[in-house]
Write a structure and sequence with these properties.
single chain, alpha/beta, about 10% strand, three-stranded mixed sheet, about 260 residues
Length: about 260
Amino acid sequence: MFKATKDKKLPATITGSLPRPIWYTENLGHRPFRDALGDTRFREQYVDAVGAYVRDQERAGLDIVTDGDCRFDMDVGGLSWFQYPARRFKGLGGADYYYKVKKGYGGTTKGDILFEVFESRVMPRCVGKIERGPLHYTYLWKVAQGMATRPVKFGTITPELIGLSIGNDFYPSHKELLYDISNAMREELIELAQAGCQIIQMEEPNIHLASLQRHGETGQFDLDFYVGVFNNTVRGLRDLTEVWCHTCWGNPAQQRLFA
C-alpha cells in the first residue's frame, strides 16, 4: 500500500500520541465519544486539537499522520491508554468494582515516578462476559481523516495489556478473559478497516513479557500464548488494511520497570 521506490524514500510518520495544547482542558471521561461530541465545549476543543495535530504533521512533511491520540484524557502516567477501552467494553464494572493495580514495579517507593503512575492506575473489574462496547474507533478515525490530506494511522493498546490490568470476577482464568477481549476488539478493528482506515497500529503486544508476566492464578504466560492472542486479534485485518506493531519496551520515564 505504501511502497518505497527508487525515487521515493520510505513514508515517514510518528508513533501516535502528541502533547495536549494548554487550552484543551475538557476530558472525555466515561462518555461514549459520539455522545461527547454533543457537548459544545468538548467538541470545539477536541476538533480544534485534532486539526492542529494534523496540520502540524502535514506541514512537517509526514506522509502518514495521526490524531495525536486526542481521545485520551488529561491524567497521570498515560492512564487513558488503558482506560479508554477498559471503560467501554461490556462486562467491565464501574466505580463500585475498581481493581487496584499492584505497586512495586522495579522496587519503587513513594516519590518515584513509577510509584505515582501505578498508585493512580485504578482499573475496572470484569463482572460479566466481555463484549464489544462503544469504543467508537471508526468515528474517532473519521474525524481526523476528514481533516487530513494524507492517510491517518489509528493506534490502539493490545487486548492482553487491558486484560492484565483489570480484576477478574467472572472468567475461570485470565486466559479466557484475554481471548474474549481479543474477540471484541477484533470486531471493532474490522469495522475500522472496512470504513477505510489504511493503517492500524497494534501497540505493545506482550510477547516480550512472556518470561516476566505473572498474574494471579494464571501463572506465567508463555510466548505461544501471547502470539496466539495477537494473531486472534488481527485475524482477517490483513485482507483489509495494513497492520503495524509498535513497542516501547524499555525504561518508562527513565525508571526500571522490573527489579
